[in-house]
Amino acid sequence: MPDFVRRVPDGDTRERLVCPACGHIAYENPKVVVGSVVVAGDRVLLCRRAIPPRHGLWTLPAGFLEHGETVEEGALREAREEAEASIVIDGVLAVFTIARIGQVQVIFRARFAGAPDYAPGPESLEVGLFGWHEIPVDRIAFPSVKWALDAWREQGPSPLGRPATNPPQDPRGSARLDAITEERPL
């Protein structure tokens, strides 16, 4: 958008990209990420990333919501793409805001549709089920993965309650992962 300029449009309070010729406003809104904490008994499914960012580190099966999908459909698709897993969603585990990069993350608690069956998809180097003390905490890709794992552990197998949100020490999702891990290890 090289012809667009940044200014506050009439009747607005924020600077936006505006076409000086026609006045069209190009709104820049947050992206939605969807994913799941997929549980088999007391173990959780993790995927080792085969793509940037954070190549080689561990994450949940998650990614950007596509146009035309519900958040549930997006989470089901991400589990298939990243872990070749067929899952059933139990409900919303957490909603996180990562303001510094314009993301809202909706994380579900889920389980395998049948016996645990998974394999690396094209975006994963490997996938596996991990008990709480087996989680590779020093190789977690993103702070929100740690937050989701904390929410899963705190919730346990009980019925889902109010979704978890950003931790009090990082309400805007701006702390580095090593700062969060040092404060409260897994």
Structure, briefly:
It contains 3 helices and 10 strands; from the N terminus they run βββββββαβββαα.
Question: How are the secondary structure elements laid out?
Answer:
Elements: E1 5-7, E2 16-18, E3 25-26, E4 31-40, E5 43-49, E6 58-59, E7 62-64, H1 71-83, E8 87-98, E9 103-112, E10 124-131, H2 143-155, H3 177-183
Parallel strand pairs: 4-9
Antiparallel strand pairs: 1-2, 2-3, 4-5, 4-7, 5-6, 5-10, 8-9
Q: Please, could you describe this protein's structure?
A:
This protein has 186 residues and is an alpha+beta fold. It contains three helices and ten strands, in the order βββββββαβββαα. The protein has helices at 71-83, 143-155, 177-183, and strands at 5-7, 16-18, 25-26, 31-40, 43-49, 58-59, 62-64, 87-98, 103-112, 124-131. Strands 4, 5, 6, 7, 8, 9 and 10 form a seven-stranded mixed β-sheet that branches. β2 (16-18) and β3 form a beta hairpin. The longest helix has 13 residues, at 71-83. The chain is elongated, with a radius of gyration of 18 Å. The model has no long low-confidence stretch (mean pLDDT 93).
